[in-house]
Amino acid sequence: MTTFSAPAKIILYGEHAVVYGQPALAAPVESLRAFAEVHPQRSGSGLRLLAVDTGHDLPVDLAAEVDDALVEMAQRTLRFLGAAPPSAVVEVYSKIPLASGLGSGAAVSAALGRALAWACGVELAPIDLNALVYEVERRHHGTPSGIDNTVIVYDQPILFRSREDFTPLALGAPLTILIGDTGIRAPTRESVGDVRRLLERDRDMTLSTIEAIGAVVEQACVALSNGDLEMAGILMQKNHALLRQLTVSSPELDRLVDTALEAGALGAKLSGGGRGGNMIALVTPRMWETVADRLRGAGAVHVWKTTVA
Ligand code: MEV
Description:
It contains nine helices and eleven strands. It has helices at 69-81, 104-119, 126-141, 147-154, 188-201, 203-225, 229-245, 251-262, 288-297, and strands spanning 2-13, 24-40, 47-51, 56-59, 88-94, 158-162, 165-168, 175-181, 267-271, 278-283, 302-308. Helix 2 (104-119) packs across helix 3 (126-141).
């Protein structure tokens, strides 16, 4: 058995506005991962995907039309590689909560793509894996910007301007981040669709909010590269207020954001699609435990600590 994996992600600044061409900053979460385990089988037995978390047992036939993200990722990968389905069972499982803004779908696809390339005995370059994961995201999540698959496949903090233009994020000091889960599942497709409708209804106000988020991201790049954590925190708060204007926050997210700030976090905001899912708080290594306890007391069903460096 050989195991492949891919991390969860957080958006540090710029979600939603990135769908409209603004820059955004994102980072992988190394301790939260999706996995794909390859169990080779005797020759001629074909390929099966075992989705451990849902109990689904999915045979992969290149010719079949199947409405399933895992099978679609397998088909796309094998077609791209020009390979027949290998004789194997691939067990897929994930420690990343579903529909919570942490990129669980893209991480599962990335781990599966790596596993299948290995099972076929071929290399799959990150640029190609990224394009394959993006196509699956597109089918299942509407109009993704491509930031989620990119940070997950390249597994490093990035400044994302477009699918063709992203660079490693230069940090003057490491960031200690808490991730607080509201426990409310909220598909990104819905919040992205609602922002689109808001833009149709009130174009000027929505565009100016989107552009203001882009300006926050540019300022955050400077603050982060200077290691100015105080400014980075202030900019997170600004970003959260702008996301509220886009209507993608929720009472539960706002409560966790306010709690983190009251407990001494340098900044806090929702992260990802919003409406539920997760928020992040920028903390110092000295105070993180206090903030984490307060987040749990305010209803966070999970709190994870991660370092972005
Ligand atoms: C989701 O992690 C980030 C969004 O901006 C959607 C996207 O960029 O595709 C909400």
